[in-house]
Amino acid sequence: MQPIDLTAVLKDAPRGEWLALSFARDRIVAHAPNLTDAKQAAYKLGELNPIMMKVPPPHALVL
Amino acid sequence: MKIPFSSLPATPDSAFPFRSELKRPIVALLLERGEVRVIVYAVVDSGADVCVFPASVANDLGVSPSNQRASAFSGTGDAAQTAWFEEIQVTILPMEAPNIEPNQEPLTFPLYAGFCETMEHIGMGLLGQDGLFSRFAVSFHHAHNYFEIL
Questions:
Q1: Is the pTM of this model over 0.80?
Q2: C-alpha span between B96 and B114 (Å, rounded)
Q3: How many domains does chain B have?
Q4: Which of A7, B45, B47, B102 lies deepest, with the highest CB count within 10 Å?
Q5: Chain A partners of B39 at a C-beta cutoff of 8 Å?
Q6: Distance, CA of B117 to CA of A18 (rounded, Å)
Q7: Which of B4, B38, B123 lies nearest to residue A3, judging by beta carbons?
Q8: What are the residues facing B85 on neighbouring strands?
Q9: Do residues B36 and B114 touch, judged by C-beta distance below 8 A?
Q10: What Å distances lie between residue B51 and A17, A48, B54, B141, CA to CA?
């Protein structure tokens, strides 16, 4: 089985901002410094089930 | 429910000069509190004692830090961090992917979830022992790129 590849969709995503990913995980629908603003922007653009996340920081390992 | 690992971008450094991505066991979660709902990612983390999410998620769900249910915890550093806790409803959403059985049933359960400012830079939650592993059998199949929650 192959992992779900999020590297391409997150490649040029703005670091530090909240991203609203399409539920199909194939594009960033909206982004904003604030989670709720990004989510509402995605709703307005017709994405009813955005997945909210941030780009992992450069110090990517989490312990 | 069988879920593929996800690959996230990572920056190479002197310890891992050839690293360009990280493979993590993450799930898409529908979090609900009353009429408010938000879908976020969370890492399935057997080393976490509880389930915690970034403070922004609490703000979106209308959970106030002044709810008086605060608890201190620590990560690898010595400094104590504070999370505040609230009852919410969680649904683990199936992820459509090749080689994954389609139409898997979502898993819904009540969760006493923590929220903290220090998770903010990570931008996703952690599903830990009390909340996830206390309810479900979880098995990791890292070499085969999937994990299972039963």
A1: yes
A2: 28
A3: 1
A4: B45
A5: 23, 49-52
A6: 14
A7: B4
A8: B114
A9: no
A10: 23, 25, 11, 22
Q: Retrieve residue A26's tokens.
A: 């194939």
Q: What is the DSSP letter of A3?
A: P
Size of interface A-B (CB pairs under 8 A): 98
- Amino acid (1-letter code) at residue B73: F
Q: Is B15 contained in some domain?
A: no
Contact B11 A36 (CB under 8 A): no
The answer as to whether B13 is a domain residue is: no
Find tokens 């002044």 and name the residue.
B66
Q: Which residues contact B79 (CB under 8 A, 6 or more apart)?
A: none
Cβ partners under 8 Å of residue B17, min gap 6:
none
For residue range B101-134, list pLDDT tens digits in order: 778 899 999 999 999 998 898 999 999 999 999 9
